[in-house]
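User: What would this chain look like folded?
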Amino acid sequence: MSKKITISNQIKEFNKKILVSGDKSISIRWVLFSSLANGNSKAFNLLMSEDVLAAISAIKKLGIKVKILKNECIIYGKGINGYKYKKNLVINAENSGTLGRLILGLLINTPYKIKLIGDKSLSKRDFARVASPLRKFGAKINLKKDRTLPLTIKGLQNPVPIRYHEKKGSAQCKSAIIFAGLRTAGKTFIKAKKSRNHTELFAKQLGLPVKVVSKKNFDFIEISKAKKIKASVYNIPSDMSSSAFFIVLTALKKKSRLLIKNVNINPSRTGVIKILKMMGVNIAYKNKKAYNGEIVADIFIKSAKKLRPINCPQYLNSGAIDEFLLIFLVAAKAKGISIFKNLSELNEKESPRLYWGAKILNKMGIKTITTKDTIKIYGNPKIIVNKKIIIKDFLKDHRVFMTSVIAALSFGGIWKINDADSIKTSFPSFMNIINELKK
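Assistant: Here's the prediction, encoded as structure tokens.
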């Protein structure tokens, strides 16, 4: 049975300080890099979500020892060639596209076929974008209908370096190639459309042979074979995507203020901040500092007095791709028409999110016009919801669930929202923080 929640009251004004969970993208990458390190790596504030636990389970199946303590995680790396490949091995990426795509780059040397599976949602997502470049290295990859999971991969002892033009702005595809390149003799080159750069920053901090030349629209990346990866100690900063739910809740709730502590504000992740500022949301950074190649800060938010519509600049899309459902809620309360274009990547996520963004607004009484990659939102600054709304059948997409909660608390109505357990994939403490804000 699907776990449901009912929300029947708007949240009252609040003035709080919170700390959200560790960054999911960094947590998964730390697990994967640490599995290749020489020696013991330690992380604090590692996100203990189902996606990260799936990554830990995956490296365990490859022979890597992991110890999870109350406040820390230790990974006992065996070096870049330390994986134990077994026959008939099955790795389950669960709901995690990041894990599912990145780990394929690490399996480029497997002498045996390894099967990669995922849950119902992940099994609908595109893996051809990763299979295509990895096949160029020489790996044999078989996909269901040449696109989706389950798949099998068989690597080779001496993969060949490649040149690849990554055009989608997929950090997962780019990262898979980087991981493969680190295990391949010679030089691998990527021309990559701008996207999240956590993998490159990790590589730089670890002193790995990954060189990046950044241009306006593309990054040019050169990767050579790594001889050794050093162990690390990492205090994982808080996740921007998780923080965004509370940023938007504060923006929409009158007379409210919020301080979110120690958030990763990597420029490739702050599209949501830039977009919301353009729309009139009051956001400021405090205690800004550099940490392990990333930038962290406390984020201070005050509720917006007047929200403006936006014709969203497309260059901000990649830096806000996981936050657009929330941005649509802000557009719903802006006076005027907001336009968002070139968002086809939204439909490559856990659910067809562009469709769900429009559906949630329509249920609230907000007019939208959508195509396969655009949405036009007719905002209403006086919107109050006075009806029952049911949210279900969204492929257990955690962001659809959490966005629906924020909408219910912000606009009113009686909301019955299915699949509350979906938050376990990325943000298990979400409802705990909501309840803290209600006090």
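The chain has a mean pLDDT of 96. If you want, I can go into more detail on any region.
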